[in-house]
């Protein structure tokens, strides 16, 4: 048991000893004198120990000490008739004093007597939280009642031990102490009930969760609120983020804000668990699992401002009946669950799921689908039924029962993959062979009555969006027939999505894909703004081309290991340094003007340097004159640091790489270049 808990319990020892010595036995005058002296000594010891080890004392410590000090003087220095009066009513007087001690301070604007005790149990960050004071007021008034009834029991008991000792001790130790310990949890549980949430709707990290909070923002609750909420989350999936609320809207951005209305400091893991309802948020703050600065009322309002995903999935109403929106995603990548296309697709589906849609992904690589041979059997001999007995009949049934079809394919020679093309050809049984004019064009009508919409998801390695023109034309021509195309999620330069050095920029793209899923369900289509956000290249075209060429060279020269499509860690110093320069953050650099020289030995020796000026960073080969910082390192050490296999600061302390010049510039490099060092 902790010392603070022991001292809280022992604070009642002087009172207990005093009442027992005074009332048990003959209750003589001599007993009263002995009881006051022993009680005074014990109260003095309690006061000194609390002051010494806990740095504070409670109202009760002071009240015990004051009362027993006054009582000792009374029984020893007043005439016998007067001193006997104190002995006869000592326990009644004691509990009356304690009653007033617990009742009067808060009535005159002072802290409740339990404040000093509670401050021993809870961190300083919560002392000014309204709920902290309210809980302490409730506990204080309970203690006032207990002391009042103890005084009343003593008064009516006329000195009998049962009324003067037993009943008060039952009230204090049987009710007061357990209540003080259990009531905070009970209050928080009752006062802050949480809405049911479905954990499957939540992202894997707190950063992703906060970036999606604007999607659940309620402008009716916010009204005219204008405030910035700063998040500083530590650990995995953390970072510094800001939610800006103004004009009935909420926007997310990375970084810091100069004067936030509310700042929240927490580990990413704890914040995610609080959002899922696994940890009670007010209780977590009371226990110091996170701390806040600023407007506490805004913190208490966040549960209303931002709606969490709920378990109420059946939210789509059709003809008076509840119907769950079904989204079928057809994924045509030859690398089923590791492709860039699938990464983008799954973010989109998560957004749709958060709005209650039911989603399913079909990976065509895992299916047996014959190529269409154009026999027209499905139009003539067996209308609606293909001659091939493979996996396609099952997939056709899924297509017919879906509300939205999502076609996901990487760009292969400016078109879809052969897997998706084979699937598309085999959709023929769903069409009727007759020709019907729609607008200016004759088309085949649908064989079945369906009410579908269509979304296209595609990625490519080229840096420009124009490479998707051919694919877009195919789906727009196809969709304009009977199935409207309600969203185009097209990502150029998608090979950069998995690069560690670009994860901050990639996060913006993932957030936009999630937003697209939300909009499809909520609004019936993806907004042009969201489509444009996904289409933004992570790097300039020339920068990406240079990185791509360096990357391929690393394979051709034997520097990179493994298969190109399974790229993971960076294994080429040129690629690493060029990537660092491309991801340079001008906001953190400010007006910095400096050169950083790399003198590299080991498996990939060479000399390269960065020139930083006017908010830009240039990567060059060779040596520069008078660099501000020179880093001398084996290539394998710096690559290990970049790939998070080695702690940069520890490697420096261990002498695994050396520096000359401005060491302060070295310490800032992590801010300039992300995970570089």
Task: Write a compact overview of the structure shown.
The protein is an alpha/beta fold and 677 residues long. It is built from 26 helices and 19 strands.
Overview of this protein structure:
The protein is α/β, with parallel strands linked by helices and 677 residues long. It is built from 26 helices and 19 strands. Strand 6 and strand 7 (321-323) form a beta hairpin. The longest helix has 31 residues, at 161-191.
Sheet bearing the most strands, described?
5 strands, mixed
How far apart the termini lie comes to 44 Å
Helix content: 40-55%
Low-confidence stretches: 310-322
Strand order of the largest sheet: 3-2-1-4-5
Outline, from the CA principal axes? elongated
> Structural class per helix/strand content?
alpha/beta
Mean pLDDT: 82
Q: Treating each run of at least 4 consecutive H or I residues as one helix, how many helices?
A: 26
Number of strands: 19
Rg, rounded, reads: 36 Å
As a percent range, the share of strand residues is 15-25%
Task: Write the SSE topology.
Elements: H1 3-10, H2 13-23, H3 29-54, H4 59-77, H5 80-88, H6 90-107, H7 114-121, H8 130-157, H9 161-191, H10 206-212, H11 219-222, E1 227-234, E2 239-246, E3 249-254, E4 262-267, H12 268-276, H13 281-286, E5 290-294, H14 296-305, E6 316-318, E7 321-323, E8 326-331, H15 340-354, E9 358-363, H16 392-401, E10 404-410, H17 418-425, E11 436-438, E12 441-443, E13 453-459, H18 469-479, E14 485-491, H19 503-523, H20 528-535, H21 541-556, H22 573-582, H23 586-589, E15 594-601, E16 606-613, E17 616-621, E18 629-634, H24 635-642, H25 648-653, E19 658-661, H26 663-673
Parallel strand pairs: 1-4, 8-9, 8-10, 10-13, 13-14, 15-18
Antiparallel strand pairs: 1-2, 2-3, 4-5, 6-7, 11-12, 15-16, 16-17, 18-19
Helix pairs in contact: 2-3, 2-9, 3-4, 4-5, 4-6, 6-8, 8-9, 15-19, 19-20, 21-22
């Amino acid at each position: 048991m902790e010392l603070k808990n022991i001292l809280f319990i022992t604070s009642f020892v002087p009172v207990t000893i005093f009442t027992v010595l005074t009332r048990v036995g003959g209750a003589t005058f001599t007993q009263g004198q002995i009881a006051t002296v022993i009680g005074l000594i014990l109260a003095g010891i309690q006061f000194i120990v609390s002051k010494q080890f806990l740095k504070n004392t409670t109202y009760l410590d002071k009240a015990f000490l004051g009362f027993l000090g006054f009582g000792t003087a009374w029984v020893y220095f007043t005439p016998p008739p007067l001193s006997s009066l104190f002995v006869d009513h000592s326990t009644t007087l004691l509990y009356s004093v304690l009653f007033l001690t617990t009742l009067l301070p808060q009535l005159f604007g002072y802290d409740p007597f339990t404040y000093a005790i509670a401050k021993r149990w809870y961190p300083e960050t919560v002392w000014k939280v309204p709920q902290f004071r309210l809980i302490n007021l409730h506990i204080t008034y309970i203690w006032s009642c207990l002391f009042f009834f103890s005084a009343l029991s003593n008064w009516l008991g006329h000195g009998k031990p049962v009324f003067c000792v037993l009943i008060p001790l039952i009230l204090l130790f049987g009710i007061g102490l357990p209540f003080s310990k259990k009531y905070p949890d009970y209050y928080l549980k009752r006062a802050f009930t949480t809405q049911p949430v479905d954990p499957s709707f939540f992202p894997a990290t707190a950063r992703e969760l906060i970036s999606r909070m604007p999607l659940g923002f309620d402008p009716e609750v916010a009204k005219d609120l204008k405030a910035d909420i700063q998040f500083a989350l530590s650990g995995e999936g953390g970072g510094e983020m800001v939610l800006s609320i103004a004009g009935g809207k909420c926007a997310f951005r990375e970084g810091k804000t100069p004067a936030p209305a509310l700042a929240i400091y927490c580990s990413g893991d704890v914040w995610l668990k609080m959002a899922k309802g696994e940890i009670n948020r007010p209780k977590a703050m009371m226990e110091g699992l996170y701390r806040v600065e600023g407007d506490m009322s805004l913190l208490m309002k966040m549960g209303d401002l931002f709606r969490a995903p709920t378990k109420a999935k059946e939210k789509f109403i059709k003809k008076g009946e509840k119907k769950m929106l079904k989204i079928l995603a057809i994924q045509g990548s030859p690398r089923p669950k590791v492709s860039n296309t699938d990464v983008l697709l799954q973010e989109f589906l998560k957004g749709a799921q958060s709005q209650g849609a039911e989603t399913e992904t079909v990976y065509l690589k895992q299916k047996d689908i014959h190529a269409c041979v154009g026999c027209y059997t499905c139009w003539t001999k067996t209308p609606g039924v293909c001659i091939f007995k493979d996996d396609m009949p099952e997939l056709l049934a899924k297509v017919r029962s879906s509300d939205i079809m999502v076609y996901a394919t990487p760009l292969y020679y400016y078109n879809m993959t052969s897997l998706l093309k084979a699937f598309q050809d085999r959709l023929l049984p769903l069409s009727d062979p007759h020709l019907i004019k729609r607008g200016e064009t004759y088309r085949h009508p649908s064989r079945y009555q369906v009410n579908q919409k269509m979304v296209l998801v595609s990625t490519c390695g080229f840096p420009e969006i124009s490479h998707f023109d051919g694919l877009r034309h195919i789906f727009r021509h196809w969709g304009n027939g009977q199935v409207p195309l309600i969203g185009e999620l097209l990502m150029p330069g998608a090979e950069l999505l998995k690069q560690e050095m670009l994860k901050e920029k990639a996060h913006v793209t993932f957030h936009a894909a999630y937003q697209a899923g939300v909009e499809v369900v909520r609004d019936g289509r993806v907004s042009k703004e969201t489509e444009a956000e996904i289409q933004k290249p992570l790097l300039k075209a020339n920068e990406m081309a240079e990185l791509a060429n360096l990357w391929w060279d690393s394979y051709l020269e034997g520097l990179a290991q493994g298969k190109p499509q399974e790229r993971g860690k960076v294994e080429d110093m040129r690629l690493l340094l060029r990537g660092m320069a491309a991801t340079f953050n001008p906001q953190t650099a400010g007006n910095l003007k400096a050169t950083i020289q790399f003198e590299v030995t080991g498996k990939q020796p060479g000399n390269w340097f960065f020139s930083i000026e006017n908010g830009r960073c240039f990567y060059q080969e060779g040596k520069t004159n008078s660099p501000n910082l020179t880093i001398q390192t084996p290539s394998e050490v710096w690559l290990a640091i970049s790939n998070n296999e080695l702690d940069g600061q520890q490697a420096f302390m261990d002498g695994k790489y050396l520096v000359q010049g401005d060491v302060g510039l070295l310490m800032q490099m992590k801010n300039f270049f992300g995970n570089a060092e």
